[in-house]
Amino acid sequence: PQTIYLADYTPPAFLVDAVHLTFRLDPNATRVISRIEFRPNPDATSQDFMLHGEHLKLIWAKVDGQDVQTNLTGDSLKLDVPNAPFIWEAEVEISPATNTALEGLYMSRGMYCTQCEAEGFRKITYYPDRPDVMAVFTVRIEGNLPVLLSNGNAVAQGEGWAEWHDPWPKPAYLFALVAGDLIAKSDTFTTRSGRQVDLNLYVRPGDEHKCDFGLDALKRSMVWDENFYNAEYDLDIFNIVAVDDFNMGAMENKGLNIFNSAAVLASPETSTDANYERIEAIIAHEYFHNWTGNRITCRDWFQLCLKEGLTVFRDQQFTADERSAAVARINDVMALRGRQFREDNGPLAHPVRPESFVEINNFYTATVYEKGAELIRMLKTLVGDQDYYKALDLYFRRHDGQACTIEDWLKVFEDTTGRDLTQFKRWYSQAGTPRLKVSEAFENGAYTLTFRQNTPPTPGQEAKQPVVIPIAVGLLNPDGGEVVETQVLEMTEAEQSFSFDGLGAKPIPSILRGFSAPVILETDGIGDNAAFLLAHDTDPFNKWESGRALARRTLIDMITKGAAPDQAFLDALLAVLRDDSLDPAFRALVMRLPTQDELAQTLFDMGHTPDPMAIYQALETLRQTMAQHMQDALPRIYAAMHVGGSYSPDAEAAGKRALGNTVLSLISLTDGGAQAQKQYDSADNMTQQLAAFGCLLNIDQSDTATQSFYHQWKADRLVIDKWFGLQISYAAPAKAAEITEHLTQHPDFDWKNPNRFRSTLGALTGNAAGFHHPSGAGYDLVADWLIRLDPVNPQTTARMCTAFETWRRYDTDRQAKMKAALQRIADKPNLSRDVTEMMARILN
Ligand code: HT7
Ligand code: ZN
Question: What is 297-429's CATH superfamily?
Fold first, then answer.
């Protein structure tokens, strides 16, 4: 397959002013008639007219009304055209019903639906399918279905047809069409300047009761974007559609967002607090794209972080504002470390702005999204809040209606602040997670912190240069008071010292407060302050981080030295658990132990070969020890976390349930599951039912609960996804592959549905000890299924290949087994471009 390079970018030869599309819907033979107004691009460097097109049956084509014989070469169409404005018309036939890749126009349980990002529009009709070609779309849909939707405003409709017009020029990846037997739950929103917007959430009949939260989250997002970014909505309608078959979470098509049902539908009985929180964040994310992505889009796909990093940052800000900022930040960092640090440490490491790709779908990664968001956060920390919002104002004014680059983005900050961001830009081009080592000195009342930064080599990038690191630091005195409030130190050199004068005693530093930069901080050079900071730090992130460091150390000592769980750690944890002045959600986070994957990476970084079974055993032992050590305190806290009244997903109630369920999981380790059974039987919401179900599965693969849960929920696909997933997540290492295999034979295992596939095979790859069991059964089963899924849905297959990205961490036996599984996938004839690229990079 061909590699595409950022350095090869050239502007489009022709621009598009207007697009008219007519869809005659038919499951196996949809006709798409296009009329596209082209004109030469004055900035073009070539005059070659080229249209993308994949899996299209061309019926006819005309240029300025004259039939043309086209030159079809692979996935594109080339033609000699006048060097003047002209009209292209064509009719193509496509087959939505057989489109299982879920890209382009496809069908999901009788409903027509599109997914065009990144390069799906070319599966709908011939078009310059690149984001720097922005055009005004008018769409007519003909089909015998009650609901016919496209982007923009509704222009006209009749029996079996509808017309839509989107006045905002947009790239083809933001095109959308939905048609089906759907029901709308509706609301309205009045923008700050008085525009009345109709809000509709379209769902299948039967899902109407799962819409209220999504609509409420949408309205809150609309207000928030007006308040913080002066960003107002710009159409008369904002439609959201829930679809069951979808490769990712959601898609920000202009005026017609399409959501994976799992990312929008919610009811107390069927959705957990975590589901509600995720739905709120995704609704906000997609809505915020209206400005950061749609009004201002990307020049090319290498600039993906321009819209995704910024929009993730904005949705993180929203969550922090709507819920607890401290808890939100801890959750963001856990996700970053769990997915992005893992990626940055392995064969798939790539810069936030990659410089080449084979299949762009493989670059919708944690690095582009989550690390991309961290770069925006650092910029904001460096320039300060006021200049950040000034720069954003300028960005919106200067670039509205344009397709931009990271250079445009940084220039806005340079022009606003007068700063030179040349060095900061390295964050966009250098892959890998910087290691930041710190040491200290105290003399004559002056306290000096010395930092050394180093970024390890990553594929294709051996040598790294120093990056700009904003290090937020506060100093505490030995009795726990704060002597120096948070200051941001701006590190630019490979090694750099910062001094604080006039101190009466040697302080205890709290470094990288709020996780001010996406680096790995190594504090061996400043002594052991973790227990002190867990007790005294005023920065909630570092307070949590200190607890995490203590837990990690205890576990590493148990694994590498056969040590017993550290009593001091257990006492410190118990003190936090009992401290009613602390937010329950925060306490629940402190009680959470590091993941198996995090421990494996830590051990690997320390020069050990991680043994997944030893890691699993250490975590089991520590949990059991915690349950005994805290036994007396647990019933009171469990009772105190009881939330009365009807269910509400708000942060306070959810925090109480989170801590209550954490405590329940410990209680169930000493009471044989009696309390969990009680909670399971009396739960009136999914958060409590599922947590109790998990406890019961953890004690033994409780058949009774498994059966009763299934029979209660068998009609609800989203709950049955949880049912598949939980049984596998809680499976003992030796049984995980077998249980997964057994579940893949269940009549409800609809493997072509990405949610079901992920909740089953994805749960196995997430059960680290099960996936890495020495038998190799986990590797084999996952490889078998990836081989089977690839011809059906390459995008979802390729994403799941990341389960193998850590293969080089492990012992030779596991490495050989994983490599064999990978090789088996790589050797499959006719492997998709997506998976071919993933295999090449992972095996490299
Ligand atoms: N911009 C979207 C990214 C995306 C996507 C979404 C659904 C299915 C396939 C997709 N390919 C790329 C989602 C977002 O970041 O908001
Ligand atoms: Zn996005």
Answer: Neutral Protease Domain 2 (1.10.390.10)
CA of 714 from ligand 1 middle (Å) equals 29
Cα angle for residues 381, 385, 391 (degrees, 5° grid): 100
115 lines ligand 1 (CB under 6 A): yes
286 in catalytic set = yes
Angle, nearest 10°, between helix axes 540-561 and 567-578? 150
Q: If you measure from the C-alpha of residue 116 to the centroid of ligand 1, how many angstroms do you get, rounded to a whole number? A: 9
Q: Using the 8-state DSSP alphabet, how is residue 527 labeled? A: -
* pLDDT (tens digit per residue) in 618-637: 999 999 999 999 999 999 99
Does the fold of domain 440-527 match that of domain 1-94+111-180? yes
Cβ of 281 closer than 6 Å to ligand 1, yes or no, is no
How close are the terminal C-alpha atoms of the chain, in Å? Answer: 16
User: At 682, is the pLDDT very low, low, confident or very high (cuts 50, 70, 90)?
Assistant: very high
Q: Which of 578, 593, 451 has its CA nearest to residue 516?
A: 451
CATH of domain 1-94+111-180: 2.60.40.1730
Q: Answer yes or no: are the C-beta atoms of 718 and 749 closer than 8 Å.
A: no
Q: How confident is the model at residue 75 (pLDDT cuts 50, 70, 90)?
A: confident
Quick one: pLDDT at residue 1? 87
Look at ligand 1, atom 7, and give the residue with the nearest C-alpha.
248
- Ligand 1 binding pocket includes 310 (Cβ within 6 Å): no
Express each pLDDT in 415-435 by its tens digit.
Answer: 999 999 999 999 999 999 999
Closest ligand 1 atom, residue 795 Cα: 9
Q: Please give the average per-residue pLDDT across 651-661, as a whole number.
A: 98
Contact in structure between 546 and 534 (CB atoms under 8 Å): yes
pLDDT for position 524: 93
Q: Which residues contact 407 (CB under 8 A, 6 or more apart)?
A: none
Which top CATH class is 440-527? Answer: mainly beta
Quick one: average pLDDT of 324-330? 98
Any atom of ligand 1 within 6 Å of the Cβ of 248: yes
Q: What's the mean pLDDT in 656-664?
A: 98
Task: Give the C-alpha distances (Å, rounded to integers) separating 639 from 28, 323, 636.
Answer: 58, 24, 5
Give residue 698 CA to ligand 2 midpoint distance, Å: 35
